[in-house]
Amino acid sequence: MNAFFPLIGREIRLALRHGADTMAALLFFLVVAVLFPLAAGPEPAALGRMAPGIVWAGALLAAILPLERLFGADYEDGSLDLLLLSGLPPALIALAKSAAHWLTTGLPLVVIAFPVAVMLRLPAASLAPLLIGLVPGTLTLSLLGTAGSAIVLGARRGAVLLPILVLPLAVPVIIFGAAGADAAQSGAGKTQSLLLEAAFFAFCLPICPIAAGAGLRAAGE
Questions:
Q1: For position 186, what pLDDT does the model report?
Q2: pLDDT score at 92
Q3: CA distances from 187 to 50, 173, 195 (A)
Q4: Which of 50, 174, 183, 208 could be cross-linked to 143 through a Cys-Cys bond (beta carbons 3.0 to 4.6 Å apart)?
Q5: Contact yes or no for 48/185 (Cβ under 8 A)
Q6: pLDDT of 86 above 70
Q7: What residue spans of the chain are helical by DSSP H?
Q8: Any long-range contacts for 17-20 (C-beta under 8 Å, 24+ apart)?
Q9: 155: how many CB neighbours lie within 10 A of its CB?
Q10: Quick one: pLDDT band at residue 10, thresholds 50, 70, 90?
């Protein structure tokens, strides 16, 4: 673990140095949230019903934007070979990358989701379930994105293959996350959807770093 946490710090510093990637993801999220009302109409009740889906779809698409550079820059300049030779298991390297991705992209998306949800007229009773569900949801998106980024590393048309690989795997995240906020609007129990969201995160937590580690080993050979 002496190398794990410094690696997370290194990734955060690199992300801050290239802050345009994070800003692009946040601006993309805001643009998606603004365009939906223009297409669907400004009627508050309709916007409130659609708000959970809008927030989740925007968060998913925005989280994918920085994934291409997650391993790509290290692969191009040879830093990935040094990381693989550092003695840290490839799965832990992938987990550190995933943690840094969430801290620099997922967490800001959770924070900015609050004013976006208010702008979309989401009922007050649904705000807490939406934001609570976004935490394990964005963590899961970071894990899935890290695995997908490592698997397509070095492949031709990797930038095209990455969203094709990640988006279908992220469908349960959107379904469970939006269902929790919808249940709060209808007065039904919302705990089940949040528990399913947490369970999917618990399932991905060991699986995705292992899959990403295998992709890193294949790319480094």
A1: 66
A2: 92
A3: 16, 21, 17
A4: 208
A5: yes
A6: yes
A7: 4-17, 19-40, 44-64, 68-77, 79-84, 90-101, 107-119, 124-151, 158-169, 171-186, 191-220
A8: 18/69
A9: 14
A10: confident
pTM of the shown model: 0.89
The type of residue at 3 is A
Cβ contact 152:158 at 8 Å: yes
pLDDT tens digits, 158-207: 778 888 889 899 988 888 888 877 777 666 656 788 888 899 999 999 99
Are 39 and 125 a contacting pair, CB within 8 Å? no
Residue type, 37: P
Contact between 170 and 60 (Cβ < 8 Å): yes
Q: Which two tokens stand for residue 109?
A: 């998306």
Report the candidate in 218, 66, 41, 82 with the shortest Cα–Cα distance to residue 138: 66
**Residue 164 and residue 96: Cα distance in Å, rounded?**
24
d(CA 213, CA 221): 13
CA distance 138 to 3: 25
